[in-house]
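User: I'm putting together notes for a lab meeting next week and I want to include a structural view of one of the chains we've been expressing. I don't have a solved structure, so I'd like a prediction I can at least talk through. The sequence is below, exactly as it appears in our construct file.
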Amino acid sequence: MLKEGKIGVFEATAIVVVASLTKVMFSGPRADVEILGPAVWYVYIVTTLLALAGFLIISKLMEKFPGQDLVFVFKKVFGNVAGCILSFLVGIAFFIGSIVFLRLFTEAVKAYVYTFTPPSFIMVFFISAVLVVLYLGLETIARTAAIFILPILFGLLLTYILGFPSSCFQYLDSALAEM
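Assistant: Thanks for the context. Below is the predicted structure for the 179-residue chain, given as structure tokens.
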């Protein structure tokens, strides 16, 4: 997979952090709070732990078969039929996640920046940019993430600091008190 070049630990960590922050910031926390109330922060902990467990399982599998892709590993470990089904399910999960993220991104851009632009135009523009980045490769994505990780983290920290005075920590207390 990484035959085109090497990426370091910092670049790989930057990719994971940027992807995770993007997912959290576009996940619609207001809708989550409306559904789950003060226990919404449990959802983020549970989903993080589940994602970490899934990543560790796949990572351990990939260590046993260096240089092979995920489809080959699934076929070797689970057999041809189950491996194909599992690969298909993983692909479908990524596809659905991409569609949901594209829609959330489009709605955010339409709401805050381009209010009169049709959603289809925003989607086509974003997909075109993604295709260019994919063509450039993983090493370019890693270098770009490494360059922008510090300003992104600074902006996120600044957002939390500026929002701190209007935070109500009693909501967390009520969720903890029920335990």
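A couple of points you could mention at the meeting. DSSP finds eight helices and no strands in the chain. Helices lie at 9-25, 29-36, 40-64, 70-78, 80-112, 119-136, 138-163, 170-177.

User: Perfect, that's what I needed.
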